[in-house]
Amino acid sequence: DHGKPKVFAAKRIPPEALAYLEQYCDVRSWDGDGPIPRERLLAALADAEGLLTSGDAIDDELLARAPKLRAVSTVSVGYNHFDLDAMRRRGVVGTHTPYVLDDTVADLVLALMLSAARRVTELDAYVKSGRWERGQPEAALFGTDVHHASLGIVGLGRIGERIAQRAVHGFGMKLYYHNRSRNPEAEERYGAQYVSMDELLGESDFVVLMTPLTPKTERFFRKEHFDRMKPSAFFINASRGRTVDENALVEALATGRIRGAGLDVYEVEPVDPSHPLLAMPNVVTLPHIGSATAQTRRDMALTAARNLVASLRGDEGAYVVKELRS
Ligand code: 8YV
């Protein structure tokens, strides 16, 4: 492998992606179960020029132990694990995997909305536990309609637009959104109404968080936001758990301040089995699987491999994160 840049793959990737990477790079991989221990990762980077990761913190500590590192490619669209200032200071390129997962995540958000509203997980347990003894389930187990309800998307970006397409064209929903900046295409295409956060919270039967996790969005959704929501409303989060004050979410659900929730992400992951959210029948809990279909995870890994090779070769076409674009 003389002359090929040394790269370290800190997570297992599908064979197609590994084969692509090995065409152009001298690849070493972590092949253990679960995330690579931090010290093993730092030691593995001593002579690496490229790193493929999906969540390891790329910070001063790591960069100091990787003197030859030029490019980091994350197999994710979110890159809150990138310390952008540290990477910029050392001239390290960071890339991510937008677009390939937009529809898969949007499907999962609709699954969370439908499951929470129609009480799918609760009623699945009802049937499987033998409690369905006679006739129709009683009215106390009835759910909430999704069709023609109102949807408020906080963070209407690429994934948000795919959610809007499903909600508006598939379920006839009325769409509100709140963003840092306007999204005229979505307003045109889906009749999305740009409203204040207050108005979105007061009008929406479903509130969907789809913002990236940044210093500005860390725990931005708090008690005051839940207090503004309709008591019949559902809260859906498939972006990052740390965009919400999770204690405020627990309190809003425990006090009946909101009707229910559908969650794919949590402040700490994996979520602790004793976490109060897991004991709430009106909360649908999934293990951060928004993009986790075989096809999409293969596409993400291939995109990440291509990003890494392009970054190391100075080729065009890598999805460099916007804050690190030259
Ligand atoms: C990733 C995700 O699989 O793409 C993202 O940002 O949240 C998921 O698709 C996850 O981040 C990997 O750790």
Task: Describe what is shown at a glance.
This protein is α/β, with parallel strands linked by helices. The protein has 12 helices and 12 strands. Helix content is 36%, strand content 14%.
What is the CA-atom radius of gyration, in angstroms?
A: 22 Å
Q: Estimate the mean pLDDT confidence.
A: 97
Q: What is the succession of H and E elements?
A: EHEHEHEHEHHEHEHEHEHEHEEH
Question: Tell me, what's the shape?
Answer: globular
The unreliable regions are: none
Q: Cα distance, first to last residue?
A: 30 Å
Helix content: 25-40%
Profile the largest sheet.
Answer: 7 strands, parallel
Beta-strand content bin: 5-15%
The SS-based structural class is: alpha/beta
State the helix count.
12
Task: Note down, in words, how this protein is organized.
One of its GO terms (cellular component) is cytosol. Its EC number is 1.1.1.79, 1.1.1.81. One of its GO terms (molecular function) is glyoxylate reductase (NADPH) activity. Residues 8-321 form the D-isomer specific 2-hydroxyacid dehydrogenase catalytic domain. Keywords: Oxidoreductase. By secondary structure, the protein is an alpha/beta fold. Helices cover 36% and strands 14% of the residues. The chain is built from twelve helices and twelve strands. The protein has helices at residues 15-24, 38-44, 60-64, 84-89, 102-117, 120-128, 158-171, 184-190, 197-203, 223-228, 246-254, 294-313; strands at residues 6-9, 26-29, 50-53, 71-74, 93-95, 150-154, 174-178, 193-194, 206-209, 234-237, 260-263, 283-285. The strands form two sheets. The protein has a seven-stranded parallel β-sheet, with helices on both faces. A five-stranded parallel β-sheet has the order 2-1-3-4-5. Helix 7 links the parallel strand 6 (150-154) and strand 7 (174-178). The longest helix is centred in the last third of the chain and has 20 residues, at 294-313. It starts with 5 loop residues before the first strand and ends in a 13-residue tail after the last helix. 2-keto-D-gluconic acid binds next to loops.
